[in-house]
């Protein structure tokens, strides 16, 4: 199970280059339920996500299954994705012993979009989370911050995001 919250960025974290990063390329074979393929550096993954009937009030909660893919299988499936492919750099920023901020900086048609997500061990953990000062507004339930939605837009401007929100 995946339990996560997403946040806008109120200011960029210091010294991004010091953190581990992943260059990600991903596409969606289906968005309801989510069937995603992802290249993360040199790892290739097929992911299935389904919301089922979980309470989504405090965090986004999905059943999630990840399976490894070969590079050849990824490239074959890439030609079959719906909409477009997302490209982003993900910085892994330790927050505490239990939490890591996954700070995504998007490229290409979504250049200018940045947000951060944190995964939790339980819904209580998600509710009790105290965000760092560089986190902005919680956008966990705003579809414009779901990667499965982002593949369907043609540009960052199409999202109509108020940076000052």
UniProtKB/TrEMBL annotation:
Q: Which InterPro entries match?
A: CYTH-like_dom_sf (IPR033469), CYTH_domain (IPR023577), NeuTTM/CthTTM-like (IPR012042)
Q: Which PANTHER family match?
A: SLR0698 PROTEIN (PTHR40114)
| Domain CYTH per the UniProt entry, residue ranges | 1-155
Q: What positions does UniProt annotate as the active site of this protein?
A: 28
Q: Which organism is it from?
A: Lachnoclostridium phytofermentans
User: What is this organism's lineage?
Assistant: Bacteria, Bacillati, Bacillota, Clostridia, Lachnospirales
Q: Show the SUPFAM superfamilies listed in the entry.
A: CYTH-like phosphatases
This protein's name: Adenylate cyclase
């Amino acid at each position: 199970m995946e339990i996560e919250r997403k946040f806008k960025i109120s200011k960029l974290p210091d010294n991004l280059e010091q953190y581990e990063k992943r260059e990600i390329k991903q596409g969606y074979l289906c968005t309801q339920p989510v069937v995603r393929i992802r290249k993360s550096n040199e790892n290739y993954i097929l992911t299935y996500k389904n919301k089922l009937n979980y309470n989504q009030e405090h965090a986004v909660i999905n059943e999630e299954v990840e399976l490894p893919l070969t590079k050849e299988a990824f490239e074959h499936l890439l030609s079959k994705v719906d909409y477009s492919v997302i490209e982003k750099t993900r910085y892994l920023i330790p927050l505490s012993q239990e939490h890591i901020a996954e700070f995504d900086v998007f490229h290409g048609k979504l250049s200018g979009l940045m947000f951060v997500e944190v995964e939790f061990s339980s819904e209580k953990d998600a509710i009790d989370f105290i965000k760092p000062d560089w986190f902005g507004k919680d956008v966990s339930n705003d579809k414009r911050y779901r990667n499965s939605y982002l593949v369907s837009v043609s540009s960052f401007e199409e999202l109509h995001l108020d940076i000052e929100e």
